[in-house]
């Protein structure tokens, strides 16, 4: 089935690292994404990882994928107050002929100064 | 390059009315998808269009419909509005309808049904 789960809330201090976790169920997922949503705004693509990769690093962002456990994580190094937002993980399903995304519920990241 | 634009940004309607939302994709993008975002259900896929054809449809009642024009712009329509249709409707565009294509989202249309 299609299901993506995330913890709902994470609070960190400015300068610390944040780790947001996600689990998914569809073993045929091809790409997994992290999106950021700020209040009143749409979704901003942060990064994505192809299902045959274990890790991807992009500046302060590190994505880890454990395909065996169907677990995805997003690490934000040196978290800033501007990183406060809702973070969604999403998977693209099976067929390469569709861009349909299944989203998790979103993790609200609160960064305390 | 201009991003995905959605109009209107905010809309207030009453139960029983119908509404049409518009999405203009990024230039050169031919695939458009729509999502509904509510506090209770989160982000749910509505439908996906490519080359004026609906390629995929989510689990929504027939009151929700859409179309795509030859210039790739897309509209979605909701007829006989219900209170539960109050949501943020997001549109996303990509070059092709493929899992590997980066999808860019617009700012959304916030619909309130009274």
Oligomer description: heterodimer
Count of helices of chain B?
A: 0
How are helices and strands ordered from N to C of chain B? EEEEEEEEEEE
Report the radius of gyration of chain A as a whole number of Å.
Answer: 14 Å
What summary fits the major beta sheet of chain A?
6 strands, mixed
Low-confidence stretches of chain A: none
For the secondary structure, the number of strands of chain A is 11
Hey, roughly how much beta strand do the residues of chain B contain? over 45%
Largest sheet of chain B: 7 strands, mixed
Find the count of extended strands of chain B (DSSP E, 2+ residues).
11
The greatest interface here is: A-B, 27 and 28 residues
Tell me what the structure shows.
The complex is a heterodimer of chains A (113) and B (114). Chain A is mainly β. Chain A has no helices and eleven strands. In chain A, strands 2, 4, 5, 9, 10 and 11 form a six-stranded mixed β-sheet that branches. The model of chain A has no long low-confidence stretch (mean pLDDT 90). Chain B is built from no helices and eleven strands. Chain B is globular. In chain B, strand 4 and strand 5 form a beta hairpin. Helices cover 0% and strands 53% of the residues of chain B. The mean pLDDT of chain B is 94. In chain B, the strands form two sheets. In chain B, strands 2, 4, 5, 6, 9, 10 and 11 form a seven-stranded mixed β-sheet that branches. Chain B has a four-stranded antiparallel β-sheet with strand order 1-3-8-7, with no helix packed on it. By secondary structure, chain B is mostly beta strands. Chain A binds chain B through residues 30-31, 35, 41-45, 48, 50, 88, 90, 92-106, and chain B through 4, 31, 33, 35, 42-45, 48, 55-56, 58, 90, 92, 94, 96-108.
Keywords:
heterodimer, A: 113 residues, mainly beta, 6-stranded mixed sheet, 5-stranded antiparallel sheet, globular, B: 114 residues, 7-stranded mixed sheet, 4-stranded antiparallel sheet, 53% strand
